[in-house]
Amino acid sequence: MIEIDIYKGIPIEEVPWKRETPHKILVDTIEQLISSPAHLLDLGCGLGHNAAYFSARGFEISGIDISETAINYTNKLFKERNLKGNFFELDLCKLLALPKHSYDLAYDIEVLHHIFPSNRDTYLRNVSDLLKAKSYYLSICFSEEDINFGGEGKFRDTSIGTKLYFSSKEELQKLMSKYFEVIEIKEIELEGNPSPHQAIFCLMQKM
Ligand SMILES: C[S@@+](CC[C@H](N)C(=O)[O-])C[C@H]1O[C@@H](n2cnc3c(N)ncnc32)[C@H](O)[C@@H]1O
């Protein structure tokens, strides 16, 4: 099951992943790989704070999210801050009518655990199609090694009524290798609300 708009019913201020400042590992990794004015793609851009950070640093930025609430919020944020960006309300697990080979780097942070295994091939094919040759793709999602969040096992229920899929490093290595060259894959700790998350960091390059 894919939740269409996980923001419906939660006041924006209480969205657990809402943070004004991007995770340091996201910024450090991207800024070491590429410099502005490259075109970045934020997959599952949420409320747009990560995208706003990169836009303010001079990157061209686009974002995709399945949630109308998230896209409206992001557009409002960009308008208020006088930033430029293109945001699309689309399901990344469906065929996308967007121009291919357009982006220099794509990232998804805390998104892939919303994408269940049956949808992951379509999702990754979309990501690969959108990227230019040799472009980078960084994915950070929850790990099944996490012992704090939602119990244990692969499928876990959250306090906001969503069901997430927790991955292992081995399964992501195998899955991602079908579409990308995996440059680095590792377990990391990601700051979280109310406690840190165990996550998998996977840096890839389009072949
Ligand atoms: C936990 S939030 C993370 C948002 C953002 N990346 C951040 O770090 O703040 C996950 C986001 O993925 C989006 N999402 C989930 N499934 C999606 C899909 N199939 N296509 C596009 N976006 C999706 C959700 O709407 C939500 O905004």
From TrEMBL:
Domain Methyltransferase: 41-133
Pfam families associated with the record: Methyltransf_25
Presence of keyword Transcription regulation: no
Keywords for the protein's UniProt record, in alphabetical order: Methyltransferase, S-adenosyl-L-methionine, Transferase
MF terms (GO), sorted A to Z: methyltransferase activity
The keyword Amino-acid biosynthesis is assigned to this record: no
Coiled-coil region: none
Entry superkingdom: Bacteria
InterPro entries per record: Methyltransf_25 (IPR041698), SAM-dependent_MTases_sf (IPR029063), TPMT (IPR008854)
GO biological processes: methylation
CDD domains: AdoMet_MTases
Name this protein carries in UniProt: Class I SAM-dependent methyltransferase
